[in-house]
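stage 2 :: seqdesign
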């Protein structure tokens, strides 16, 4: 199967423990790999600088995951029509990118979301379990499609289309807003099962902050719901 039409984008913020292994696995796909260092303050910058064969993009300060993804999309647009996004915390197996690619309907532009398997296991953090259910419901209420894993960062995006969706969120909320915007622009969204690897205890680095991110999620969903109501009113 030809894979020359896609690139890999890895947004990174303080993932010095896992990022090197994730990059090496992504390089095994033999496609362009863009690593976006979103203002890391640990040893991440030095680690990714030591890896050959990748394109490193940097934010001088932490702007958020959505901002990092957009930086990656804009850079990758010069070499690829599609982008696979992979989190830097080691929870994804980059080899599963081929499953996302193979799931594309022939001739159709779409977003493919990697639906993480085993998310109900006992060792999976409660924040991930709750956040997944919370997000799934409110994405649907906001006018997006019903998904089983709307928070998965392992995705396949059509680059030109995603850059033109007008997504406003720049942090974690980007990944839920982009799904809603895709539905509004008649860009199909599908899910494909992928494996997930959750490291236990201190080995896993998460930047999810329950209170702050709950407020940010609430703001994003409120904005999207109000927008949906206005669109519905104007269409009548």
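stage 2 :: out
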């Amino acid at each position: 199967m030809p894979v020359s039409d896609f690139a890999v984008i890895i947004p990174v913020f303080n993932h010095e423990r896992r990022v090197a292994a994730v990059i090496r696995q992504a390089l095994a796909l033999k496609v362009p790999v863009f690593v976006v260092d979103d203002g890391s303050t640990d040893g991440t910058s030095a680690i990714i600088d030591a890896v050959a064969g990748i394109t490193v993009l940097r934010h001088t300060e932490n702007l958020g995951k959505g901002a990092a993804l957009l930086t990656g999309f804009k850079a990758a647009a010069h070499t690829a029509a599609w982008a696979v996004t992979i989190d830097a915390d080691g929870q994804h197996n980059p080899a599963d990118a081929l499953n996302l690619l193979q799931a594309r309907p022939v001739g159709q532009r779409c977003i493919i979301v990697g639906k993480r398997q085993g998310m109900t296991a006992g060792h999976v953090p409660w924040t991930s379990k709750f956040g997944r259910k919370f997000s799934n419901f409110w994405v649907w209420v906001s006018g997006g499609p019903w998904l089983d894993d709307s928070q998965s960062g392992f995705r396949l995006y059509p680059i030109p289309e995603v850059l033109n969706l007008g997504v406003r969120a720049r942090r974690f909320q980007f990944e839920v807003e982009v799904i809603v915007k895709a539905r509004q622009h008649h860009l199909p969204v599908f899910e494909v099962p992928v494996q997930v690897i959750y490291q236990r205890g201190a080995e896993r680095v998460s930047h999810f902050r329950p209170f702050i991110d709950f407020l940010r999620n609430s703001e994003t969903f409120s904005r999207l719901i109000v927008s949906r109501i206005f669109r519905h009113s104007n269409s009548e």
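stage 3 :: structure notes
- The chain has a mean pLDDT of 88.
- The beta strands are 6-12, 33-38, 55-59, 82-85, 111-116, 155-158, 189-194.
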